C-alpha cells in the first residue's frame, strides 16, 4: 500500500507530508504537533449565532444625535446705538488719551450727527458681512418707545426665527442693578431706564442679545436670576435666549487708546482686523498696523491672503470650542445658526484680547475659559506669517503670497495622533481643522484630509460620532458632486463607514442623487473587488427600508449591473456577498423589481453561488432568492397585476423554491435560516397549496405519482398519463384553521384562488404539487435543525402553514401509544408512523414496516429521513404552538432575516488596521502551547511505559445516564465528559471541582457519540457529536454559563433502510479541517468544517455500517473506517481512488480503530473488535497483522491509542481496563477496582481517552457516573515524595 505523495495529489488538494521513513526524529515530532497550525471556525459568524440579530445599523441610526433637530437662522437684526456724541455719561470718567473709535470711525473727526449715521452704517455693514440676507433695523440714539416699536417690528418680521438685538451703550450710564438699560427721552434731556424683561417681552424668543457697555454683566445676571424665565403668560425658554456681554457687572470697558472704544463689537464683527492689530501691539517684530487695512483679497475668497487668514481663524476657534464645550452646547452654539456660530467664534477672540486689559466678557450660556488655549499660538504663527509678507504684497499687487503651513502642520499633528490614539484616549483636537481642510479648494489639503478622516472613521462608532458632531456630513455629501477621480476611493470608504453606523443618512443621499455616484463606481471596470463590494454595501443601505431609494436605484439599472458582475466576481467572496445582498434589497417588497428578476431569470445566476465555499456567499444568494418571492409591498407604485401575470409569477416563484430547496442540508446555519425565511414568505401567497401539500404529506394519496413527484420511494413509476380529478378543499378563511380536505386520489387538484378580488379556479399540475410537498418536507426538516435559531424558524413556517399544532399533537399521541390522533387531517397511521417525523434526525422508536423514502427532496444532494417518533419541543413561550393563524395576520409577523444587518458589521469593524496587541497576545500564547506540546510529545515518544494503574483522580458526575464520552484537555488539568442525556461537564482533575455543565441541546431526542477539540493549540472549541449525526461546536465552554454555540449542522443525512438509528461515528482531523462522519448509513461523509460544506461522500461497504473511525495526525486526508462486519478500510482523499485498502480483520464488529506511532519511522494501525481481539498492522503492509492480542473474552467496548507513547488501552463491559504495549502487544497492566472507593469494582467501561502529551488515561463507565484518570505508577511515587 502507498500513501499519497505530492505527485499523487489531486488538483486543489494540499500535498501531505512525506511518507513515513523520510523524516528525522525531530521532523516527525514537529509534523505531528504543528500539523494543527490552521485555525478553524474563527470568523465573526462563529462567535455567537444567538447574537447575529444585534449586528448592523438600526433603522433610525446609531448616531443620529448629531443631527440638529431644530436648525435656526437669524433673519432680523435690531442695531441700537446710544452714543450721544459730545456728551459723556455722568457715571463714566474718561482718561486722556482714551479710546475713541466706534466701528473704526473717530466720532470727533465728523459732525456729531454725521458721525452717528456713519457709525450706524458701518455697524450694519460689519454684521451684513456675516449674514447678508438678514433684515437690519437701525435705531440711533432712540427713545424707549422707538426701541419698543423696533423690537416689535423685528419679531414680526422674524416670525419663529431668531432676532438679534445689538446694544451699544457707550453714551449712556451703566445698566442699573436691576438689569435696566438706559435710553433717551424725546428732547434728549433725560436718561430713561428700560427693564430688560420688557425688552425680552417685545423681542420674544428665540433671540440673541449683544450688550456692548460698561457693567453689561448686570443684564446677564438679571436673566440668569429669573426664577421661572417667564413674564406674564408667555413662557420663555432659557435655551432660546443667548446673551453676549462686553464685561462683567462690576467692570468698566477698557479705555486704552491703542484699542477702539467698541473693542467688544470690533472683535465680534471684524475679528481679523482686530486680532492682527492686537498682535502688532504685542509682537517684538516691527509691523505697520496701518497696512492691515490693505491686506489683499476678500475674506470669503480662500485663495487670497485675507480669505486664508479668515479660514485659519475659523478653524482655530472651531477647534477651541469643540475641545472645551460639551457636545450638546457645541452643536447649539456653533452648528445651529450661522450668525450665532460666527459671533461665538469671535467671542473667543474677544475674551482673549479683553482679558489682556483686565476686562472679562460674559455670556449665557456660560463658556469655560479659552483665552489661554494652546491653539492661540497657532493663530499667532499664522498672523506673523501673514504680516511678514504684507509689505511686499502691498508694494506689488501682482506678487503671489505664500500660503501658511498651518493646515499642513495641523494635518501632520492629526496623523501623529492616529498612530497612537484610541477610544480610551483624549480625542484629537485637530478634528475641526480636518473639516476645514476638506472644505478648502486646495486639492492637496483636501485629499490628505479625506484620507486622514477615513483612517479616523475606521477606528469605530465613537470616531464616526465625533466626526459627524463636528459637522463633517454636509461637506462629504457635497463632495459627491465632484468629478475628481482621485477622491473616489476615499469618499467611498468614508461613506461606507458613516452608513455602517448611521443608516439615517440614506435619505440625504437619495435626496441629493448621491446614489448615482456609487452606482457609477460599482460599474467601473478599473476598481478593486473590495471597493466594488463597498459600493454595493453603500447602495444596499441607501435602499434598505427606503421605498424611494428602491425606486431610484431600480430606475438607474442597478439590478442589471449587480447581476452582470456576479459571475465575473467568482473568487471574490465579499463582492459576491454584497452583490447578492444589494439585489435582494432592491426587489424585497418591490413588485416591479421582483417581476424583472423573474423574467430575466436572475435566479439561475444566483443559483450558481449556492455551491460557493464561503457560507456568507451561499447565505447571501439564498437571501436574494428568497426576497424574489412576493410577500409584501412597500412601494406605492406596485399596482395590481393582471391574472396571467399573477399565474406566471406563481409558477416562477415555484422554480425559485426548487432552487432554494437545494440548501436544506447546507452545513451553515446562516444558509438554512435563509431557506426557512423564504419558506415563510412562500406561505403568504401560496398558503392554500402548502396546506394541500401538508395534507397529502400527512396522508399520502393512493396514486404513487405523488410520492414520486415529491422524491418519495414508490414501487411504481408515475407516468404523464395519470389523470386524477380529485379535489382538495378547505372551509373557512384562507389564513384560519381549515376543514379536513377530501381524501385525494392524486395531486392534480383544482384550487379556488383569489386574484385581484375575484375568485377563479386554477388547476395545479403534478409537477407544481410536488414542489409544495418538498417545501413542506423541508419545513419539517428545519424544525429538527441542530441550531435552535433555525429550528425556531422552522416552527414558524409550520405555524404559518397551519399544521404545527397537529404535528405536535400527533407526536405526543404516538409517544403515548395511541392508535389514532385527533386532528383536522385524516391520515393513514401506518404511512404516517413510518414517514413523519424528524427529517434530519435518527429513528428512535420501534422499527417500521414501511421503508422510509430514500430521497425526500428530489434534486437535493443529500437524502432526507423520516422517523416514526415525532416529538416537537415545547414552544409555549414563543406562541408557535397554535395552528390557528389570525385572519388579521399582517406582514410584520413574517420572520425577518438577520443576515443583512449582521453582514453590515463587516464595514463597522476596523478595515485598515488590525489590533496588533491582540494578535501578539494570541501568538505568544500559541507559542507557549507549541513548546509544551513539543516537549510532551518528545517525552512520550521516548518513554518506557510499564504500569498504568495509579488512580490519580476520580469523581462522580451524579448522572443516571452513565458516561458516553471523555476527553482530557491537552494544556489544562481539565476533563470534558458527556453522558447519554447529552449533558456536557467540565471538571478539574486537580481538585475535582465542576467548572461548567450544560446541555448539548434541548431536543427530546438524546444520545451522545463523541467529543473532540478543534484548534487545540489556540483558543480551542469543543465539538460535540450526537448519535443522531448532529454536530454542535461550542466556544467559551470552560467558563460557567458562558458557552456559546459557534455552529451546528446535521453531519449525517439519510440512513440504511430498516435501521433503527444512525449510531453516528465522527472523527476530526485538524490538519485538513475535515470532519469524517458515518454510522448506519451506506456512505462516509466528509465535511469541510470551516467552509461548512460537504466536500465528499464516499461509499462504504454496502452490507454493513461504519462502527469506528480514526484520522491520521501526520498524513493529511488519510483516515480509517472500521465496520460492523469486522473489516476496516483506509481512505486517502488526496488520491484519485479514495479507498486505498480494505481488510477483513475480525469476525465481529470493530469497536475501535486508531493510528499508532510506534517508532520514529513507523506508522501502524491498531484495530479492536467487539469479540475482544486487538490487531496491529504496519501501514506499509496491511495484509497481515504485526501483532495480535486476545485482550478480552468478548465484550470489548472501547479502544484508545496514545498519540505519541507506544501504549494502548482497551475497556470491557465486564468491568476491566487493560493496557498494552503498542510495539510488542504485551499486557502492561489491568484495572478492575477503584483505589479510592474501598476496592469497589469499576463499572462497565464505555469510553477511554489518553491525554495527548502525557501518559494519562481517562475512563468512563456506562452504568455508573464515575470518571477516573489513571497515570503511571511512577507518577504516584513522585506525588508521594512531593507531598
TrEMBL record:
Keyword annotations of the record: Repeat, WD repeat
Annotated coiled-coil segments of the chain: none
WD repeats: 1018-1034
Domain of life: Eukaryota
Region (Disordered): 1-28, 867-889
A Pfam family recorded for this sequence: HEAT
Compositionally biased residues, Polar residues: 875-886
MF annotations from Gene Ontology: protein-macromolecule adaptor activity
SMART domains attached to this UniProt entry: Raptor_N (SM01302), WD40 (SM00320)
UniProt biased composition (Acidic residues): 1-10
Stretches assigned to the Raptor N-terminal CASPase-like domain: 71-224
GO cellular component: cytoplasm; TORC1 complex
UniProt record, GO biological process: cellular response to amino acid stimulus; cellular response to starvation; positive regulation of cell growth; regulation of autophagy; TOR signaling
Keyword Cytoplasm: no
Keyword Nucleotide-binding: no
Family per similarity comment: Belongs to the WD repeat RAPTOR family.
Name of the molecule in the record: Raptor N-terminal CASPase-like domain-containing protein
Amino acid at each position: 500500500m502507498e500513501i499519497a505523495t505530492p505527485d499523487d495529489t489531486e488538483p486543489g488538494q494540499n500535498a501531505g507530508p512525506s511518507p513515513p521513513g523520510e523524516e528525522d526524529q525531530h521532523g516527525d515530532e514537529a509534523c505531528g504537533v504543528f500539523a494543527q497550525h490552521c485555525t478553524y471556525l474563527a470568523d465573526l459568524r462563529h462567535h455567537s449565532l444567538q447574537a447575529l440579530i444585534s449586528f448592523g445599523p438600526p433603522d433610525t441610526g446609531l448616531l443620529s444625535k448629531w443631527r440638529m433637530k431644530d436648525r435656526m437662522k437669524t433673519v432680523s437684526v435690531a442695531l441700537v446705538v446710544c452714543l450721544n456724541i459730545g456728551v459723556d455719561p455722568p457715571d463714566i470718567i474718561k482718561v486722556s488719551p482714551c479710546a475713541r473709535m466706534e466701528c473704526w470711525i473717530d466720532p470727533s473727526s465728523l459732525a456729531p450727527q454725521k458721525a452717528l449715521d456713519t457709525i450706524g452704517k458701518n455697524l450694519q455693514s460689519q454684521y451684513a458681512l456675516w449674514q447678508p440676507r438678514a433684515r437690519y433695523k437701525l435705531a440711533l440714539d432712540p427713545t424707549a418707545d422707538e426701541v419698543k416699536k423696533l423690537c416689535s417690528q423685528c419679531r414680526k418680521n422674524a416670525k419663529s426665527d431668531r432676532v438679534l438685538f445689538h446694544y451699544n451703550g457707550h453714551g449712556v450710564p451703566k445698566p442699573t442693578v436691576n438689569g435696566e438699560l438706559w435710553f433717551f427721552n424725546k428732547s434728549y434731556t433725560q436718561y430713561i431706564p428700560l427693564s430688560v424683561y420688557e425688552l425680552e417681552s417685545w423681542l420674544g424668543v428665540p433671540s440673541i442679545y449683544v450688550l456692548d457697555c460698561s457693567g453689561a454683566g448686570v443684564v446677564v445676571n438679571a436673566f440668569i436670576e429669573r426664577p421661572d424665565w417667564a413674564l406674564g403668560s408667555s413662557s420663555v425658554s432659557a435655551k432660546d435666549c443667548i446673551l453676549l456681554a462686553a464685561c462683567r457687572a462690576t467692570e468698566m470697558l477698557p479705555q486704552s487708546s491703542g484699542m477702539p472704544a467698541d473693542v467688544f463689537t470690533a472683535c465680534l464683527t471684524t475679528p481679523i482686523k482686530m486680532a492682527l492689530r492686537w498682535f502688532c501691539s504685542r509682537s517684538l517684530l516691527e509691523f505697520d498696523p496701518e497696512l492691515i487695512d490693505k491686506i489683499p483679497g476678500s475674506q470669503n475668497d480662500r485663495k487670497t491672503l485675507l480669505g486664508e487668514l479668515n479660514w485659519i481663524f475659523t478653524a482655530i476657534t472651531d477647534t477651541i470650542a469643540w475641545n472645551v464645550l460639551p457636545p450638546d452646547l457645541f452643536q447649539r452654539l456653533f452648528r445651529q445658526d450661522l450668525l450665532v456660530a460666527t459671533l461665538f467664534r469671535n467671542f473667543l477672540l474677544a475674551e482673549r484680547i479683553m482679558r489682556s486689559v483686565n476686562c472679562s466678557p460674559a455670556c449665557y450660556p456660560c463658556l469655560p475659559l479659552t483665552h489661554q488655549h494652546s491653539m492661540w499660538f497657532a493663530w499667532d504663527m499664522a498672523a506673523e506669517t501673514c504680516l511678514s509678507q504684507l509689505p511686499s504684497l502691498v508694494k506689488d499687487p501682482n506678487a503671489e503670497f505664500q500660503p501658511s503651513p498651518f493646515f499642513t502642520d495641523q494635518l501632520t499633528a492629526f496623523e501623529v495622533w492616529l498612530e497612537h490614539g484610541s477610544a480610551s484616549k483624549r480625542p484629537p483636537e485637530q478634528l475641526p481643522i480636518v473639516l476645514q481642510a476638506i472644505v478648502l479648494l486646495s486639492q492637496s489639503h483636501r485629499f490628505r484630509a479625506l484620507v486622514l478622516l477615513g483612517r479616523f472613521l475606521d477606528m469605530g462608532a465613537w470616531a464616526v460620532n465625533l466626526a459627524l458632531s463636528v459637522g463633517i456630513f454636509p461637506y462629504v455629501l457635497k463632495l459627491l458632486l465632484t468629478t475628481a477621480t482621485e477622491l473616489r476611493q476615499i469618499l467611498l470608504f468614508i461613506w461606507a463607514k458613516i452608513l455602517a453606523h448611521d443608516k439615517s443618512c440614506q435619505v440625504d443621499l437619495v435626496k441629493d442623487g448621491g446614489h448615482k455616484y456609487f452606482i457609477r463606481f460599482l460599474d467601473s471596470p478599473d476598481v478593486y473587488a473590495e471597493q466594488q463590494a463597498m459600493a454595493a454595501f453603500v447602495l444596499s443601505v441607501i435602499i434598505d427600508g427606503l421605498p424611494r431609494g428602491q425606486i431610484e436605484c431600480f430606475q438607474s439599472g442597478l439590478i442589471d449591473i449587480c447581476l452582470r458582475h456576479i459571475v465575473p466576481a467568482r473568487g471574490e467572496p465579499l463582492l459576491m456577498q454584497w452583490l447578492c445582498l444589494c439585489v435582494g434589497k432592491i426587489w424585497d417588497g418591490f413588485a416591479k423589481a421582483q417581476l424583472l428578476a423573474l423574467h430575466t431569470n436572475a435566479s439561475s445566476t444566483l443559483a450558481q453561488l449556492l455551491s460557493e465555499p464561503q457560507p456568507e456567499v451561499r447565505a447571501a444568494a439564498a437571501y436574494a432568492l428568497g426576497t424574489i418571492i412576493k410577500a409584501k409591498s412597500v412601494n406605492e407604485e406596485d399596482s395590481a397585476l393582471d391574472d396571467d401575470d399573477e399565474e406566471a409569477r406563481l409558477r416562477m416563484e415555484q422554480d425559485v423554491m426548487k432552487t432554494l430547496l437545494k440548501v436544506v442540508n447546507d452545513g451553515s446555519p446562516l444558509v438554512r435560516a435563509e431557506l426557512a425565511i423564504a419558506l415563510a414568505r412562500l406561505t403568504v401567497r401560496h398558503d392554500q397549496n402548502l396546506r394541500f401539500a401538508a395534507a397529502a404529506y400527512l396522508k399520502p394519496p393512493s396514486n404513487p405519482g405523488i410520492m414520486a413527484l415529491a422524491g418519495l420511494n414508490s414501487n411504481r413509476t408515475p407516468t404523464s398519463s395519470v389523470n386524477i380529478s380529485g379535489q382538495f378543499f378547505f372551509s373557512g378563511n384562507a389564513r384560519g384553521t381549515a376543514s379536513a380536505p377530501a381524501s385525494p386520489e392524486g395531486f392534480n387538484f383544482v384550487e379556488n384562488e383569489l386574484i385581484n378580488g375575484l375568485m377563479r379556479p386554477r388547476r395545479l399540475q403534478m409537477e407544481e404539487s410536488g414542489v409544495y410537498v418538498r417545501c413542506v418536507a423541508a419545513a419539517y426538516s428545519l424544525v429538527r435543525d441542530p441550531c435552535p435559531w433555525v429550528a425556531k424558524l422552522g416552527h414558524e413556517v409550520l405555524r404559518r402553514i397551519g399544521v404545527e399544532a397537529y404535528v405536535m399533537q400527533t407526536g405526543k399521541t404516538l409517544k403515548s401509544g395511541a392508535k389514532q390522533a385527533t386532528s383536522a387531517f385524516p391520515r393513514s397511521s401506518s404511512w404516517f408512523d413510518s414517514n413523519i417525523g424528524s427529517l434530519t434526525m435518527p429513528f428512535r422508536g420501534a422499527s417500521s414496516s414501511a421503508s422510509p423514502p430514500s430521497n425526500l427532496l428530489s434534486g437535493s444532494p443529500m437524502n432526507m429521513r423520516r422517523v416514526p417518533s415525532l416529538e416537537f419541543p415545547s414552544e409555549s413561550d414563543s406562541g408557535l404552538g397554535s395552528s390557528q393563524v389570525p385572519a388579521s395576520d399582517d406582514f410584520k409577523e413574517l420572520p425577518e432575516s438577520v443576515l443583512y444587518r449582521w453582514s453590515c458589521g463587516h464595514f463597522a469593524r476596523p478595515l485598515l488596521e488590525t489590533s496588533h496587541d491582540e494578535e501578539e497576545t494570541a501568538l505568544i500564547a500559541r507559542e507557549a502551547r507549541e513548546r509544551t506540546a513539543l516537549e510532551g510529545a518528545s517525552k512520550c515518544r521516548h518513554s518506557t511505559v510499564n504500569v498504568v494503574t495509579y488512580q490519580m483522580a476520580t469523581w462522580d458526575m451524579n448522572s443516571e445516564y452513565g458516561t458516553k464520552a471523555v476527553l482530557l484537555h491537552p494544556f489544562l488539568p481539565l476533563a470534558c465528559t458527556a453522558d447519554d442525556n447529552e449533558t456536557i461537564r467540565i471538571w478539574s482533575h486537580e481538585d475535582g471541582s465542576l467548572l461548567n455543565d450544560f446541555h448539548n441541546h434541548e431536543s427530546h431526542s438524546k444520545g451522545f457519540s463523541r467529543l473532540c477539540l478543534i484548534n487545540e493549540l489556540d483558543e480551542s472549541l469543543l465539538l460535540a457529536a450526537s448519535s443522531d449525526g448532529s454536530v454542535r461546536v461550542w466556544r467559551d465552554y470552560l467558563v460557567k454559563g458562558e458557552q456559546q454555540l459557534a455552529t451546528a449542522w446535521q453531519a449525517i443525512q439519510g440512513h440504511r433502510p430498516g435501521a433503527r438509528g444512525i449510531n453516528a461515528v465522527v472523527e476530526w482531523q485538524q490538519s485538513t479541517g475535515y470532519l469524517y462522519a458515518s454510522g448506519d448509513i451506506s456512505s462516509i461523509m466528509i465535511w469541510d468544517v470551516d467552509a461548512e460544506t460537504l466536500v465528499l461522500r464516499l461509499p462504504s461497504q454496502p452490507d454493513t455500517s461504519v462502527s469506528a473511525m480514526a484520522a491520521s495526525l501526520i498524513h493529511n486526508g488519510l483516515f480509517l473506517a472500521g465496520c460492523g462486519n469486522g473489516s476496516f478500510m483506509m481512505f486517502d482523499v488526496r488520491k484519485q481512488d479514495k479507498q486505498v485498502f480494505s481488510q477483513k480483520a475480525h469476525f465481529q464488529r470493530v469497536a475501535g480503530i486508531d493510528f499508532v506511532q510506534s517508532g520514529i519511522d513507523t506508522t501502524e494501525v491498531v484495530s479492536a473488535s467487539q469479540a475482544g481481539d486487538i490487531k496491529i498492522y504496519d501501514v506499509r503492509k496491511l495484509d497481515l497483522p504485526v501483532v495480535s492480542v486476545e485482550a478480552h473474552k468478548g465484550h470489548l467496548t472501547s479502544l484508545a491509542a496514545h498519540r505519541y507513547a507506544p501504549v494502548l488501552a482497551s475497556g470491557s463491559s465486564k468491568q476491566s481496563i487493560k493496557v498494552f504495549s503498542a510495539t510488542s502487544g504485551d499486557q502492561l497492566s489491568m484495572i478492575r477496582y477503584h483505589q479510592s472507593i474501598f476496592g469497589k469494582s469499576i463499572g462497565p467501561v464505555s469510553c477511554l481517552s489518553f491525554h495527548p502529551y502525557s501518559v494519562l488515561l481517562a475512563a468512563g463507565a456506562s452504568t455508573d457516573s464515575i470518571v477516573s484518570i489513571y497515570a503511571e505508577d511512577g507518577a504516584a511515587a513522585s506525588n508521594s515524595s512531593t507531598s
